[in-house]
Structures are given as C-alpha cells and as structure tokens.
Amino acid sequence: MSAESPNPTPPPPVEQAPPPPKPDTEKQDQDLPAAAAPATAETVEKEEPPPPAAAEAAQHESKSLAAMMEKEEPSSPEVPPAAVKEETAEVEKTVATQEEVVVIEATTTAGKEEKKQVEVPKEKGPISMVSFKEESNIVADLSDSEKKALDELRQLVQEALNTNQFSSPPPPAAAAAAAKEGEKVSVTEQTPAVASDTPPKSEPPVSESDVSTELKPPQPQESTLKETPQEESKEAVKEEPKTTSLPEEVSIWGIPLLKDDRSDVILLKFLRARDFKVKDAFIMIKSTIRWRKQFKIDELVDEDLGDDLEKVVFMHGHDREGHPVCYNVYGEFQNKELYQKAFADEERRMKFLRWRIQFLERSIRKLDFSPGGINTIFQVNDLKNSPGPAKRELRLATRQALQLLQDNYPEFVAKQVFINVPWWYLAFYTMISPFMTQRTKSKIVFAGAPRSPETLFKYVSAEQVPIQYGGLSVDYCDCNPEFTVDDPATEITVKPGTKQTVEIIIYEKCVLVWELRVVGWEVSYGAEFVPDAKSAYTIIIQKPTKLSPTDEPVVSSSFKVAELGKILLTINNPTSKKKKLLYRFKINPFTD
C-alpha cells in the first residue's frame, strides 16, 4: 500500500503495510525504518476533540477504532524506577494520609547500607491489545521449519554468488512482474519515479557472466592477408582461453553475505519480511542488492549532504532494552524555508531522499548484527505542529521514501511510538488499519500530547529521554557537567492533592548535587537541610516556589554538607492531575 490515500494523508510515517492480499497471493509484512506510516494503536490518547463538522465526517471511520479500544488490556508491566546505587544510597518509603515520603540514606562508603528499592505507586500506562516481541536471531532458537527455510535461502544465495546473479540485471519477465507489482501498491497518484529504481526494459539484458567469458580474437590489420572462414574459425578456437568465473562477493549494510554468522541475521530479516517463504525472500534480496548498486549506496554513505535537516531526524540514547532511539520531528517542516529547501521540486525531493537514506544507512551500520546483538531501531515520531495532509510535496516525498524503505530495509524497527498525535491522524489510521498486517500493528503505539512523556517513559528511561520530550537528557556541555545518560534517574508519581518529600540522609561531610523536574510543573518545589543536632537550625536551600510549564524544565542544585543530617526535597501537587517527578543525585567529596 502506498502512503497516499484518497483522503488527506498524514505527515511522513515510518511504516507502511502493503495492499490487502488476494485470496491466493502473499500478504506482505515488513518494517519501514524511518519515514512514516500509519499503524496500530497500543495507546490512543486524543489531545482535543475535532471541530463539529470534521468530527461528523470522521465519525464513521472512527467506529472501528472505538470498538478496538472498548476492551483495554494493560500492556507489559511498567518498568520500576531505577534503584539508587548500592554504594551511595538506601531507599525506603512511608505513606501518610496526605503526604508521601521517600527516605534515602546517602553515603560515600560502599557497603555501609543495604540497598532497598523505592516502591512507587504504579500508574496505568498505554493500553495494548497486541504486543510485539522480537524474535531470536540465534539459529538454535529457531523452529525446525525456520531452520529449514534459512538453509534453503543460504543455498540459493550461495548459488547466486557462484553464478554472479546479483551483478546481472533482472530478466525482462522479472522486470515486468516487478512493474505489475508496483502498480498494485499505488493507490491514486503515481509516486515520482526514482531514476535508478526501474531497470531499462528496451533490450534484453545480457548477464555479466556471459560477457566475462566471451573473448573475441584480435582484428587483423589492413596489411594482413584475409584468411578463409575455416582458418578464422580454427584460429578463434585455438586462441580462446578456458576461463572460470569466480564467485562474486556481495556486502549489504557493511556485512558480507555468507562470510560469518552475521549473514544469518540479514537473511532472517528478509525471511521474516516474507513470512519465511524462501523464494519470495530470495527475490527480495536480489532486488535489494541491485537497487543498492543502482543507487550507489556505498558511495552515498561517505557523501557530504549538509546538516540542514539534523533537527528533523536524529539519534538520541537507547530504550530500556538497548535499542538506539531515532526521533523524527515533523513539526520542523513548519519552517517554510526548510520546507521549500527539502520539497520544492523533484531535484530537491531527491536530495532529501538521498539524505534520509544516508542517515538510515549510517545508523544501521552501527548496529550489532551478531545473532544475539541489537540490530533494530526504536522509532519515535513527533507529530506536534506537523504540516498536515494538505502538503502535496510532502506527500510525494513521503510516498517515494516509503516505497524504497519497505522494499529494501526489512525488519529494522523494534517499536514505533507516535507522540503528540492529533485527532485527524487517528481518523486516517482507522481507514487504513484494515490493510495492515497484525505484525505491523503490534509494533505501533499512539499517544496524544498529555500522555506523550508518560508513554515514552514506559519504553525509554527518563535519563535517556531528551528534555524537550519530558526527560532529563541533554547534550553534554559546560552548563551541565554533573550528569549524563549513564546516571540513572528515579521516577515517582505524585498523586493529586498530595505532597511528596524525598529525604536524602547524609552520613558524612560531602557535596550533594541533584537535579529534578516535574513534567508540566504546576507544582511547588522547595529544598532544605535539617541537621541531626537538636540545637542546630534548619537551612533553607530553596524556598517553596510555584513552578509553571513555562519555567525551566529542570532544576539543578548543590549543597555543601558540613555536618550530619538530611536534605528534604518537597513537591506539593495542588492540582487534580497525577504528576511525574524525576530526580537523581550525586555525592561528591567534601572540599574546604
């Protein structure tokens, strides 16, 4: 299925499922690693109701989605907040009627205190009707039928390498079949053609192996007497050397085929994209390798295409399972100058496509293709302020990218999370979801603006989530030298109308450094030091102050502790909404 639809199209999606299969045809299922496509809802949170007229128009399409959401089942349980390191802290929690207190005993002496984990009230997260679990790439873990399919595909690939099939253009029949299949994918408006994407059909192609073994005798000079046809034939036979073509070497994503066990991981991606149908997977591999040569992927990886689009797509951190996280920020295209530079004409759209493929190729080559390694990417698609479905140039570029990605980059997505999703995107999804396979649907999560940070925290820990999406992660710089993505953060839910106090107990002189945020603020924050000595006075570090959503997203503080006592960090939530508190701290040596 193409990204285009008779109805308005969404901003560039990342995955797209093929058209609905005929009864005796294959139902295609594969992942699109980067651009954009509709998908299924693990979480659907509507940011605001549609206008009356639009709501009435979308009412019919939305019925199926509503039915899907009637019975909500919780997805995999929320990951508990990170425990404080054993050598630095002990954590325990006591709950009062109107106030919750987290007690942390902090020391720089390892092993002095037993570590306990904060018991944070669990908050209901995104709703999941289906849950995708990545399959193992270890051969021993495969079923018998999958092992057999892998062996058969290995044999076909080896035969193709021996006979140089990957270097030869496809026969006319295969090219015609590919063209016919391309017509099925298109819905209404034909995707702009990629110059290198369609092989020429004017003449029957000649295989490279045939050309390489054909040797012609040298032409005689004018002064040489002409020989009879019989003599010429004998001379040609006499001079023709006996040659044997060597197996060609083919690499894909930097991995040579059939050289080591990393090749099995690549072959399994193609098999899973074709439901372990060996012949179909082999055809897909051949097509992908030919496209990579035509598009000159290996040369493209090293080209300098500029950094104008670095805010549109970027990699940042890892999810809780270790997958690298890729952020696609479609709101950046609200910048008219950037939009025109990327999509104004076919030449610029092709440059954008080359840049996007280059970014994807560079990201893929950093993955671990060993059988037990991480070789998929966690995709986050931010639809906030997205240009919407009316931008024709964006639709064309999106559809063109989607076609290339779904044909040549199978099974590279671990999870697709759409955040800040507008209501119209859900209506569009309802229309196209029947054409999507269950495998594709199981990888998709939708979240409206209010639930976007919470949804991200379900899959990505707070210290790995960028500040603009509710987390604590910033690029390392002089203004934030204390904390990195390697310093775990604790997540606590502050209930409506309650006060949350974090007590950090100090056992020796030190310098305590901490940072803290409440997503969306609308709370009061204060900090104080309470000495153990009864005759000492409490020191106000931060007077209780009301913080609004427009204030700085993260508060960073430090305090030099010269005597034993405890530091209290207090959050007062007067609202009727639950709030997510994130904090982390470090204990540095005391210096005079």
UniProtKB/TrEMBL annotation:
Residues 33-42 have a biased composition (Low complexity). Residues 7-22 have a biased composition (Pro residues). It is found in: Cytoplasm; Membrane. Its main location: cytoplasm. It comes from the Eukaryota. GO terms for cellular component: cytoplasm; membrane. Residues 1-94, 161-245 are annotated as: Disordered. Residues 453-587 form the GOLD domain. The keyword Cell cycle applies. GO terms for molecular function: lipid binding. Keywords: Cell cycle, Cell division, Cytoplasm, Lipid-binding, Membrane, Transport. This is Patellin-3. It comes from Turnera subulata. The gene is PATL3_1.
